[in-house]
Design brief:
Blueprint (H helix, E strand, L loop, with lengths): L2 H13 L10 E2 L11 E5 L2 E5 L5 E2 L1 E7 L5 E8 L6 H4 L15 E5 L2 E8 L4 E7 L8 E5 L7 E4 L5 E7 L1 E6 L13 E4 L10 E13 L2 E10 L5 E7 L7 E6 L5 E7 L5 E8 L5 E11 L2 E4 L8 E2 L31 E3 L7 E2 L7 E4 L14 E4 L4 E9 L7 E8 L4 E8 L2 E8 L6 E8 L3 E9 L6 E7 L6 E8 L11 E8 L6 E10 L8
Antiparallel strand pairs: 1-23, 2-3, 3-5, 4-24, 5-6, 7-8, 8-9, 9-10, 11-12, 12-13, 13-14, 15-16, 16-17, 17-18, 19-20, 20-21, 21-22, 24-27, 25-26, 26-37, 27-36, 28-33, 28-37, 29-30, 29-36, 30-31, 31-32, 33-34, 34-35
Keywords: Glycosidase, Hydrolase, Signal
GO biological process, one term: carbohydrate metabolic process
Protein name: Beta-xylosidase
């Protein structure tokens, strides 16, 4: 090994990057970030994937890849899901852990379709476009919300949805996708969990249907009690059945997804794994066909390496640093950003002060989780750091602004304005209740903030820092033990926030947001 290669090798070891990457192979997980409930298609030599971001806005991210490994966000299916109090964080309501869930991505007759559903509104939504990367999107919606459904365009021109948990149902849709055809609902499979046994905790759900060589293959996830998330596949000669089922994979809980093929004729299954506080992370599993069944994995296991090109990293494809400088013809925000719930677009700008993100307060909020206009990006594993610089010269009494790690048990580092004085404050909600852990007086108008996350081997710890000059960093508060909670149902996210508890009308300016895959040595 040459000297430069040796240096690169030890650098990759140091930052925790899988060593197989240095050997020009892809590794699992293919995305070490929260990208759950994937649905994937291939159009010629290009792959597209949709995922779940629930209460985030815009929603249902569309990602693009040429090699199944290196992905970038190219669009969203919607700007806002709906204009209701829960999605707007109004009148004490919120949509944490709700909003839109698992989507289904399809391509039919030169048109792209993304369908999803929302318990928040009890509706099923279908978005369609000729140009998946640029839009525009047309939307139709109807009730009820069909849970974890799969949309399917059959060869005879009929359009179906399959959904349910345990007992799976099928219905035929109208040709214009505006609703269901009356009297077409039927039970498709009475007990889709049965191949995994009778002692089931999570009934079979997450349906995704595929047609290969004239046969129909229905993927579901189930979870036997005392076991792990399990892939179950049913197959049939007709879409209406009868279906026969089998357990297709039980390995580390890697499950829920479907099938994708390459132009060369190779097959993979895309699945995800619950991985603690970073969220639900995607895996690719080689597939071989045997006796008309897709056989997942190698000897029943998900391999660590894949015969695919290596990853170039998640920056800037899934997350990215931002200096908030915009040319007149550029979008206000790159696609890596999502708002926590629907934003109030009157209260933020990247144009009023060029090179800065301005967040204004427009109302009084009682807590961080109920504050509007928190701007977020995913955290990434196995470790990451997010930092920002903030100008706090225009804060008003009771304002709190800074950098967050967003989940139900959140952590914050920022500047508070109390009794006419500013302080750098760290808040931890690890106990379930926000607790101020440390406060430091601030006598200047610019402060630098940083949060570091260690997800390696499910450590799930975070530390917060501040700096007065941007070079010398000082720990503040206590370490945060990050926990993936079901009420939020999402991996931790970096967030830039500003809210008022007393006097609306103030504002702060964020100079940049930097994200890296490096953390301090004492955090590793």
């Amino acid at each position: 090994m040459k000297a430069k290669q040796l240096i690169l090798f030890f650098f990759l070891v140091l930052i925790g990057y899988p060593i197989a990457t240095a050997q020009n192979k892809a590794v699992n997980p293919v995305i070490f970030a929260d990208v759950p409930d994937m649905s994937m298609i291939r159009v010629k030599d290009t792959y597209y994937m949709s995922s779940t971001t629930m209460h985030m806005c815009p929603g249902v991210p569309i990602m693009k890849s040429k090699d199944l490994i290196n992905w970038e966000i190219v669009n969203y299916a919607y700007a806002i899901l709906d204009d209701v109090d829960a999605l707007n964080l109004k009148n004490g309501k919120n949509a944490y852990g709700s909003g839109s869930w698992a989507s289904c991505l399809r391509y039919h007759n030169h048109t792209f379709y993304v369908s999803t559903f929302a318990g928040t509104t009890n509706k099923t939504y279908i978005y369609s476009t000729k140009d998946i990367e640029k839009g525009p999107w047309k939307v139709t919606s109807f009730s009820p919300a069909y849970h974890d459904h799969t949309l399917f365009f059959d060869d005879d021109g009929r359009i179906y949805m399959i959904w349910g948990a345990g007992e799976l149902h099928m219905v035929e849709l109208k040709e214009d996708l505006s609703g269901i055809k009356e009297h077409t609902e039927r039970v498709l499979i009475e007990n889709a969990s049965a191949p995994a046994g009778s002692n089931i905790g999570l009934q079979a759900e997450g349906s995704q249907l595929f047609k290969v060589n004239g046969k129909y293959y229905l993927f579901n996830i189930t979870w036997p009690k005392g076991g792990m998330r399990t892939v179950v596949i049913h197959r049939a000669d007709k879409i209406t059945g009868p279906y026969e089922g089998m357990v297709a994979l039980q390995d580390r809980g890697i499950a829920q997804g479907g099938l994708i093929d390459t132009p060369e004729g190779r097959w993979y299954s895309y699945l995800f794994r619950d991985y603690g506080a970073v969220g639900r992370i995607p895996y690719l599993v080689p597939v071989e066909w045997k006796d008309g069944w897709p056989v997942l994995g190698i000897d029943g296991k998900v391999p660590e390496t894949l015969d695919l090109p290596p990853s170039n990293g998640l920056i800037p494809g899934i997350v990215a640093s931002d200096d908030f400088s915009r040319h007149p013809d550029q979008a206000d925000l790159p696609l890596v950003w999502q708002w926590n719930h629907n934003p109030d677009n009157h209260l933020w700008s990247v144009r009023e002060r060029p090179g800065y993100l301005r967040l204004k307060t427009g109302r009084v909020d009682t807590s961080f989780l109920m504050a509007r206009n928190t701007l977020t990006q995913r955290t990434i594993g196995p470790q990451c750091s997010g930092s920002t610089s903030i100008d706090v010269s225009h804060m008003k009494e009771g304002d709190f602004a800074g950098l967050a790690l967003l989940q139900k048990e959140f952590g914050l580092v920022g500047v508070k304005m109390e009794n006419g004085k500013k302080s750098i404050t760290m808040v931890s909600a690890q106990s379930g209740i926000p607790v101020e852990k440390e406060k430091v007086n601030l006598n200047q108008n610019t402060v630098y903030l940083k949060a570091e996350c260690n997800f390696r081997n499910l450590a799930d710890t975070a530390r917060f820092y501040y700096s007065l000059d941007g070079n010398n960093w000082i720990k503040i508060g206590s370490p945060l033990k990050m926990v993936y909670t079901l009420p939020h149902f999402m991996g931790y996210r970096f967030g830039l926030f500003n809210y008022s508890t007393i006097t609306p009308g103030g504002f702060v300016d964020f100079d940049y947001f930097h994200i890296t895959n490096r953390i301090s040595e004492d955090q590793q």
